[in-house]
## 1
Amino acid sequence: MHTRRQFLAGTIAAAAAQQTRWNLLIITNDQHRADCLGCYGNPIIRTPHTDRLAAEGVRFNHHYVHAPQCVPSRVSMHTGRYPHVHRVPSNAYLLPDSEQTIAKVLKAQGYHTACVGEMPFAPRAYTGGFQQVLANNKDYDAFLHRNGLKYPENKGPFQAAPVPWSDDLDETAFFARHAREYMRAYRDSPFFLHVNFRRPHHPFDPPAPYDRMYSSAVFPASHKRPGEMTNKPPQQQAALEKSVGFDLRTMTASDLHRVKSFYYGMISENDKYIGMLLDELKTLGLADRTIVVFNADHGEMLGDHGLLFKGSYMYDEVTRVPLIIRAPGKLPAAAVVDALVEEVDLMPTLLELMGVPAPHGVQGQSLVALARKPASRHKQAVFSEFPTIRMARTREWKLVHYTRQRYGELYHLTEDPHELVNLHADPKHASARADMEALLSDWLATSTDPKLAPERDSAEPPPK
């Protein structure tokens, strides 16, 4: 039997251990391509707070998501599993409740889990183990209504028109305010908070003053060439003719400048409130024991190849997104990793940093050792997928395979980094195409569900 003193000592020790456990804050921008941050080399965009996070943490230069659409990408982020394994190949599918997520794992470890902003598996309402939804898009709509405001009916040409209010009334500020209140409320308890900013997803509708911030900017030229679509898959020509109701072939230079200026403006708006979240952690004394992640679920075409928005494309503009991880004392500051890494690698990385075992079935590889000692190689290739499309990308080549179709895409990235010349049907590159097809086939053959591994009959001799 324990004495009262032993009981109190044990209680105090348990409370102290609880308070010293690391928190986790993930900040996800929707539709944010990698090259639109200062720390990723963009000379025009103003993102001082995200750049500060990179200066205090690890920036992954070549981080690839597993789908060019929200839900399958976010599910891979939260489960550490590929879309064909977690069974959510597009936004039209629901995540099976049997899947383990970061929120479920940390909740079982005694963490309080919450999300704010766009639902973590948006446009689905599934919470994936989050105990609390602080505020979502419907809550923001109600906030606008209470203030006599609503989103304009006319979103403008190519969905580029600013909202008629200032940034303090905008959705990013609304969600950031709820996030800060949550951190104050749970400052003495271990928490996992996922902040999901809808911006810079289209419509391109920044509030003032961000609608004017880049009106005079000279943007980098879009990557495209005349006649490019003549040997590209027909889906891409169809997308040029109609995307989100617009004929992109009619887009003028002025139209594209407006889209880019508003897209950049939304990113800078988010950056302001990311800075407020980072400052809140410091004010609360939590910065030194909170892992902070900045990432995105997919990118944005932004005029490259003549395209806007997102779609069933596997261009780097949509599949390569930012990934920054800050963990003071656990990961180095101002480190840059140039190796190819994948979205499924995030879950095991975060759990290792928090001292929590990854659940059985996770397919990603922890990035902790790579972050501590950056190397040029982590994986030979990265992969992305959509219901009938698969991509394999190495440093030198990218293959995009279309199920049951003769056409496809093959790009020699060292000579054609912007993927302008499709070599898929070129007999001179048949050997490279065959190698990439074999690589893709090997991945599909070896990335079956680890939780459904075959059970060998012990009475039978092993295969020779």
## 2
Amino acid sequence: MSRVLTALQPTGNLHIGNYFGAIDPLLELQEQGNENYLFIVDYHAITIPKDPAQLRKNIIYATAVYLAAGIDINKTTLFQQSRVPQHTELAWILNCLTYMGELERMTQFKDKSRNKGETVSVGLFAYPVLMAADILLYNTDFVPVGEDQVQHVELARDIAKRFNNRFGETFVVPEPRIRTSGARIMGLDDPTKKMSKSAESPKNYISLLDDEDDVRKKIRSAVTDSESTISFDPEHRPALANLLTIFSLVTKKSIQDLATEYKTKGYGTFKGDLAEALVSWLKPFQEKVNGYLKNEEELKRVLDKGAERALLKAETTMKRVREKIGIVL
């Protein structure tokens, strides 16, 4: 049995890229008899300023989304990162084994720190080490990630090997698991950049809570190209390839079948049908999310139980780590 770990930042603006890139793969793994961990990385979220009241709401919302998606708390340990203090304890120890050059090469840090000069937080710089701690704390075998996160899993692998070489076999060296389709849903307004909840324009993404009219408007305004036929060509027609990927994910039809079906029907018909498919997919999901949100106390209890389970595993690892580095007398 493999141990699988997935984490997402709490946000009130989770989108379909988050769902198909991170949540959906975990649902598949959940049914394969793995030992699954899914947690809300609230400490990662504060690497940039957050309103405390909104952060609390986002944690509750994220919990509702996971449960509505089909996360089974009997099969997956669902919890809040900050409720397990061993995450930050291990992160500090791993910070002492991580090189500045390794973190300076992190692509996401370069992107997020661009033009910010000396105002970039140490937390933003060091958060890949906290991510490594998140992964290694549970001796994770597989980490389902999008292509943009593979670099961080590779860092976790390097740190695990370094620790094992210096102090003796301690951590499992994790493997990234990349979904071949849908791992990286691109922006509707810019197919060269992935769909992002922090995008300047809401036309970039389809939020999991967008209403029907917003979905239709965003799909109508999604960029395509000047060609008249529908075909799947990620290299030369990335915008259309992205829309076909989304269409395939929400209908469970193959991309090639969809490309053949709409080959000569034109963008108007294609976008109209894609929008309706998204609306049909989102509606029952949104009803489930709203149902969970009506009982906030139950959502908190779910997180309480998950934290209790996670603490047991985390402390087992930390006892071994403390002994290895020589701080246990």
## 3
Amino acid sequence: MFTKETKVDDIGANRTWGSNLNVIWILAGIFSAGGMIIHSSALFNHFELTPDFSNFYQATYLIAHGHYYPYDTLFPFNYPHYGFPFLHSHGEFFVWLLAPLVAMFPNGFVLLVLQDLAIASTQVLAALWIHKLFQNKHAFVELLTIGAFIFLNPWYYFSAFFDFHLEPFSMLFLLAAAYTYLNGHRRLSLLFVLLVISTGDVPSTYLIGLGLGMFLLKPSKNISALLIALSGGVASVVESSLHLAEASSFLQRYGYLAGNHPPKSAISLVLGTLSHLGIIFSTLHQHIPLTVPYLISGNIVGLFSPLGLVTALIVLAAPVLVETPIFLSNFASFQIVSFEPILTVAGVMVLLWSYGNPNHLKSLLPKMAFAVSLVVALYTSYPNLIAAKDFNNSVSQSTATTLASVLKHIPSGAEVISGNGTVGRFSGRRLVYSLITFQGASVPIWSHQTYIIVVDNQGIADPSSAQAKVIRTFLLNDRSQVKEILSKGVVQIYRLTSKTTGYNLQFPPNA
């Protein structure tokens, strides 16, 4: 009798402790958001914001100021006329929903805060969903799962540590679509499907994986999930046919898959790829070491579920099949992180299935995979969190102080040409160009006053000392129009005064 009562008390205590975990996960999400916002504040105050931030800041700034069809000037390589309407970048309609907040908080920092809140909200939603699946049982396993694969997962944080992107929002909406659909709120899930589509052409393809994955979970019950998959495919095709994905060249990025003959259309690319399947396998083999950490950090048990497997495959397809592994690196994790919460939730579903499976051999495999994923993730992936404090941290405090002072004195109507590594905060204007285009290129001058900001060896891909000297000599050759208004440390600011506009400023090819 004593033993029985002790067991009942133990079970009751375990359930009470387990029921309180949802409060812990909400508090953990608040702590996560706070940490990311602190880091974002450091990036913002150090001017560690590049053209990726500029694209969205310029667009939201212009929309907030009545330019409802903003023009993006930050992609000069694709067009001789430097840029295109922002909507043609990646079909990112969601930006129009963010613009009112930029009107209220005009310096652009609010964009970084919203990104951080989207990531933390994803973590909390995933944690609460997992808590619901465990039903106050196996509290220790729940603690390990959510702690290791959600709140200690480095890819969530790295996706916040490099500029601003819409993929963290698509990650939240994708998870919300899965949660509402699989929990019986299927009409509500359509809202989140539309929000995923609004974040761009690439996130739209994620719906293909999610829809197919949910359908394959229970084909007879989830047949309507095929409509979600179809909506993602249709959205991608429509955005492509309307030329709403012009920021990057699909054929240039994946043309190598067709072999030695560059494809001229999507159809020729597909046909060429089918006849050169060895190239795909070779690329996948080379990129496996960079891809595995993403799978480990999300819990490889989720790959035993069609929900986790198919979603991960679709999300990974675009970055993995690029010939160079640039989109698999830490700073590009924002393009991959969308499948992480889905994979973790799917892994829990598999793990709970294994607890109730009478076949000990079948139930043992997911448990072993969980243990391996947990140990390997803690041992290999999470040291990235220690290095994260130095991520994208290369602009000195003195340089940032100088740039902040300069920014205050540049008229809002003036054109700005700035180094690639520090251009972000200067992009709250109609005309802004990146210094990286000076590799023998010309820059259009559309304002009577143009400020040229050269920051020597600071930030990502800023000009070297040698390039800065070439630019200085070139600019000061024409003292009638160009005046050096500041030279302090590694920062040089020039003002170009033009009586006429609509011409190109041609820089020397060795700059």
